[in-house]
Amino acid sequence: MQDPLFWLTISGAGLLGLVILAWAALSGWRGWLELERMKLDRVRPDATSGGASPAARIELADLKERVRKLEAIAAGVDL
C-alpha cells in the first residue's frame, strides 16, 4: 500500500471522475439555458406583436377591477 504508483493511479482516477462530472453538469446547465431561451423566444413574439387584442385588454381590466375589490374587502373598506 505504500506504492507511489498506486496512489498516483487512484488520484488520477479521482481527478478524471471529477472532470467527467463537471463536464456533465456544465452540459446539463447549457441545455437548461437553451431550453429557457427557447421558451422565451416562443412567448416573446406574442407579447410584442402589435399589442394585446381588445378582448384581452377587457379581460385584463376586469381582472384588475376584481383584484381591487378583493383588496378593499381585505383592508376592511366598505364599497
Structural class: mainly alpha
Radius of gyration: 29 Å
First and last CA, distance: 84 Å
Please estimate the helix content. Answer: over 70%
Number of helices: 2
Number of domains: 2
Note poorly predicted spans. none
Q: Beta-sheet strand percentage?
A: under 5%
Average pLDDT, rounded to a whole number, is 86
N-to-C order of helices and strands: HH
- Tell me the overall shape: elongated
Question: What's the total number of strands?
Answer: 0
Largest sheet: none
Would you kindly provide a brief summary of this structure?
The chain is built from 2 helices and no strands. It is mainly alpha-helical.
Structure write-up:
The chain is mostly helical and 79 residues long. It has two domains: 1-48; 52-79. Helices cover 85% and strands 0% of the residues. The protein contains two helices and no strands. The protein has helices at 4-48, 54-75.
Which helices and strands appear, and what pairs or packs with what?
Blueprint: H1 4-48, H2 54-75
What attributes does this structure have?
79 residues, mainly alpha, 2 helices, 0% strand
